[in-house]
Amino acid sequence: MGLRSTDTQWGATNKLLHWALFLVVLATFVAVNVAGTYDRGTDERAWWMVMHRSFGLLAMLIMVVYLILRPWARRPYQHGALWQSHLSTVVHLGLVLLVIGMPIAGLLMSQFAQREVSVFGWFAIPVVLGENRDLSSMIYDAHTKVAAPLVFVLILLHIGGALWHHFFDKDNTLTRMLK
User: Fold this and answer.
1) Mind listing the pLDDT tens digit for each residue in 28-52?
2) The dihedral sign for the CA sequence 75, 68, 147, 124
3) What's 55's domain CATH number?
4) Is residue 151 part of a domain?
5) Is residue 18 part of a domain?
6) What long-range pairs does 88-97 form, CB within 8 A, spacing at least 24?
C-alpha cells in the first residue's frame, strides 16, 4: 500500500487521517459527555472541557490537513448507485463543514464569554474579541442543539453507508478502508 490512493484502494495517507479523525472525534464526544457528569465549577469538569476543546481543535487541524492533501492523496472510485454517490457526497461535505465549523464556533463562544482556551494545557488561545454574552449563548445553542446532533447523525450515516456497501451491495467499500 502506497501513501497515495489508487483508483481501487485507499492509500496510507487517507487511511491514517480517516482513523486519526475517528479517534479524535470520539475523544471529543467522550470528553464533553464525561464533563457533563461533574458539577459546574469543579476542577474535574474544567479538565474534561479542556480535553473537549483541545480534541475539537485537533479534529479541525486533521480535517484541514486532509483537505490540503486531498488533491495529492487522491480518492478511489466510488461504488454504488447514483443516489448512493450523491448521499455520500452530502454526508462527507457535512462532516467536513461541521468538523471545521464546530471548533470555530467553540472558539468564538469562548472569546465572546471572555474565556481563553487552553490546548491540552500546553498553551492558551488568548481572548482577543470583546465580550458579548448573548452572542456566546446563541453560538452555544447552535453548537450543542444543532451541530452536535447533526454531526452524530452524519457519522451514523457514514457508518451505515459503509455497512450497506459491505452487507447489501457486497462490494469492497468497507474493506478497502480497513486493510
Assistant:
1) 999 999 999 999 999 999 999 999 9
2) positive
3) 1.20.950
4) yes
5) yes
6) 88/161, 91/154, 91/157, 91/158, 91/161, 92/158, 94/150, 94/151, 94/154, 95/151, 95/154, 95/155, 95/158, 96/63, 96/67
Of residues 19, 97, 30, 16, the one with CA closest to residue 64: 97
| Residues spanned by the domain of 83 | 12-178
Whether this model's pTM surpasses 0.90 = yes
- Work out the mean pLDDT of the chain and round it to a whole number: 94
- Identify which has the larger pLDDT, 122 or 5: 122
Total domains, the chain? 1
Residue 125 pairs in a beta bridge with 117
| Number of residues written out for the chain | 179
